[in-house]
Structure formats: structure tokens, C-alpha cells
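Spend some time on the protein that follows and explain the fold to me:
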Amino acid sequence: MSLDFLNLFLEEAEEQLDLLEKLLLELEETGSQEVLDAIFRVAHTLKGSAACVGLKQVSEFAHKMENLLDRLRRSEVPLSPNICSLLLQGRDVLRSLVRAAREGDPEVILEEAAVVGKSFEHTIKGSLDGETPGAFRLVVEVRLDPASSMKEARAFVLLKRLEEVGNVEASIPEAEDLLRGGISPERVTAIVNTEISEEDIRGCLAGYPDVLSVDIMYAVEFDCQNWESCRQKAEALSASGKRVALKLEREKVRLDAEALKRLAAAALKGYSIYATDPFFQGILNRMTFYRT
């Protein structure tokens, strides 16, 4: 394929991506079937055109996005705000892949393309298996290299990356504290509501420099008033191979003898216990549970 055809594709792709952004924002507002059909046609055009000029990465990613859009058009996957957000991430990846092809450095964006592409596939599979696509509430803990001189900047970048894959409900430290400076964290902990799978989040973060480990747990609110429901949810997650973290919230927890007994039982089952409230953080730092 001649270079002229490649340049023509790159120019037209930028126009198609601008249109895609406009349509996706309109879809987010209206949920219109007509807009969804138009988005599908843009993805289909990009897939075919990229294949014709030999841009395999662009074509394959557009194909994965097209598959999800087709399921949405046929109502096999229900449209939701989280899926609209995922499609917007897909638009960003497509734009980066096209620009990387222009600049001759496609490797830069391939990792992110793999993560978002898997999210497309996971969303489709979940619906076909009868699952309801929805957000996981995850506790993501990233340990940084203590010897790094860039811990503050790295922690900020990691938090911003998590904001791209979901809603960061809380974090320690917070992004604003990192911007103010004066701290050099060796650990970043965030509570994230996301539709992205645990494996994809780990893959997304583990490749950054200075990251020693990424630990992910599924959050369950500790609620003494509804303890049986809390216990059943935690045990179901644990039985499916998930790691569980119980979240303490001041409004829902009275630390009396019964609560301490249940916290001890949960800790001995291997569940983590965490809090974002400074009061509860201080208490947890002083608590030790012993098996008798």
C-alpha cells in the first residue's frame, strides 16, 4: 500500500475520531438508538480502513469496540453511564493508536489498548453469561520502591490512572495532598468503583516504573446492623477466590464488644479491615487479633 493511501487514511481517521467523540458525548446525554447506530458505523469504517492500509493494531482494537457497539445496538448489553465512559476510553485509545502510527511508535499505547480491549470483551461476556454489568468496589493498594526519588509524582500519576478506569471514592494519600507537596508515600491506597476487571487494573498499574506490587481486594461495608448480609457477601466473594476487605464507616459502626468480636472473626478468616476515616485508621493501627 502506497504512502499516499496511508496518509489519506490518517487524515480521514482524525476527522472520524472527532465525529466519534461528538457522537459518544451525545449518546451519554440521550441514549439514542440513532446515535448508537452512527457510532457503530464510525467504528466499522475505522476498522476496515485501517485494515486496508496495514494498521493491524488500529483495526483489531476498532473491531473489539465494534463488537461491543453491535451488542449494544441489539440490546444484548444494556447501555449505562459506565459503558459510555468505557466507550470514551476506547475513543482515546483509537486516537492514540492512529497518532502513534503517524509518528512511527505504536508500541507506546499497546498496553492500554490491551486493557481497554479486554474490558470490551469482559462486558460482552458478562452479559451473555447472564451477569448484570456493574461496578466493582475495589480496594487497590500499590507499593512503591522506597529508594525512588519520584514517589510523589508516581503516586499522583497512579491515582490519575485509576480515575480513568473508574470512580476513585477515596485515596490515601489524596491527589490534592500530593500536589501540595511535602509527602513522599511508599504506598498508595484507593477505593475505586469500576467495571474494569481486577486483572486488567493490575496489568494497567504494574507496568509503571517504581511499582513493586499491586494488591487488589473487593470491598464490603462492615455493618453490624445487617451483619448477616455483610457476612454472606464477604463469604461469597471469598469462596469465588476474591480477596475481601471490610470497610469501616463511622456512621455504620459502633465499636462495642459485639463489633470487635465480629471484626476479630473476619480478620481470622483472612479478610483485611480498612477505613478512610482518620479516627478509625488510628484505632485499626492499634488493633491486633490473636488466634486462640
The radius of gyration is 22 Å. Residues 129-134 have pLDDT under 50 and may be disordered. Residues 31 and 271 are 40 Å apart (CA to CA). DSSP finds eleven helices and six strands in the chain.
